């Protein structure tokens, strides 16, 4: 009679990021609505011009700019008194770099003023690379499951196990399936070194890690 061996296989692949998605926010706070709009539009025009220069040089994959939002509010001071009306503006911009060496210098330049702020940087892979590396991780997870099953079978004095079922993690058990159907990608911590006066920012992205996990059942016959 065959013995059923249930195992979970895991694997990961590490790879340098290919793209850097920079999130920028343009916005000011002014007592006069016209002044707020004028300052924001000026900063927006300068930023878009700088982005177009980058695009022309071949340093970008893509970029996008959101609509300008304007709202008003009356802030409170630390004594609980409501202050005069303030007009706030905001527009979001995303710039996706392929030339990661130019990313830090450019970000340092465009965020020197008080109207443009860095929201964050997301390190990415191109879609074709992500699929390729994900497949490598999936194959590694299957190989890990097979290796574990062989160890268990040998420990029990059984013959080489044969696969019976294979699925993404959670599909063979009652546990919830993790986001991504058994694979996930995350970035290990990256460091950012601010240069002189904050004018140049040196970013050192760490490798991206793509993980995969599977659950499998094997049947092993007695020798």
What does this structure look like?
With 223 residues, the protein is of the alpha+beta class. It has helices spanning 33-57, 100-110, 127-155, and strands at residues 3-15, 19-26, 29-30, 60-65, 69-73, 86-97, 116-124, 162-168, 183-187, 191-194, 201-204, 208-220. It contains 3 helices and 12 strands. It folds into 2 domains: 3-16 and 128-220, Protein of unknown function (DUF541), domain 1 (Translation Initiation Factor IF3), CATH 3.30.110; 19-124, Alpha-Beta Plaits (2-Layer Sandwich), CATH 3.30.70.120. The strands form 3 sheets. Strands 2, 3, 4, 5, 6 and 7 form a 6-stranded antiparallel beta sheet that branches. Strands 1, 8, 9 and 12 form a 4-stranded antiparallel beta sheet that branches. β10 and β11 (201-204) form a beta hairpin.
Key terms for this structure?
single chain, 223 residues, alpha+beta, Translation Initiation Factor IF3, Alpha-Beta Plaits, 2 domains, six-stranded antiparallel β-sheet, four-stranded antiparallel β-sheet, 3 helices, 29% helix, elongated
């Amino acid at each position: 009679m065959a013995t059923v061996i249930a195992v979970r296989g895991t694997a990961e692949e590490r790879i340098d990021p290919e793209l850097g998605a920079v999130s920028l926010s343009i916005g000011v706070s002014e007592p006069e609505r016209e002044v707020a709009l004028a300052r924001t539009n000026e900063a927006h025009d300068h930023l878009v011009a700088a982005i177009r220069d980058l695009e022309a040089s071949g340093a970008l994959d893509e970029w996008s700019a959101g609509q300008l939002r304007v709202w008003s509010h009356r802030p409170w001071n630390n004594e609980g008194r409501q202050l005069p009306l303030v007009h706030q503006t905001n527009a979001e911009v995303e710039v996706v770099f392929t030339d990661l060496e130019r990313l830090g210098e450019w970000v340092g330049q465009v965020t020197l003023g008080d109207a443009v702020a860095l929201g964050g940087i997301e390190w990415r892979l191109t879609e074709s690379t992500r699929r390729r590396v994900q497949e490598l991780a999936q194959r590694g997870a299957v190989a890990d499951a097979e290796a574990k099953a062989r160890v268990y079978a040998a420990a029990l004095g059984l013959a080489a196990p044969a696969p019976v079922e294979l699925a993404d993690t959670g599909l063979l058990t009652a546990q919830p399936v993790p986001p991504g159907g058994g694979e996930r990608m995350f970035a290990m911590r990256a460091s950012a070194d601010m240069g002189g006066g904050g004018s140049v920012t040196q970013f050192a992205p760490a490798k991206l890690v793509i993980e995969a996990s599977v659950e499998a059942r094997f049947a092993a016959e007695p020798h």
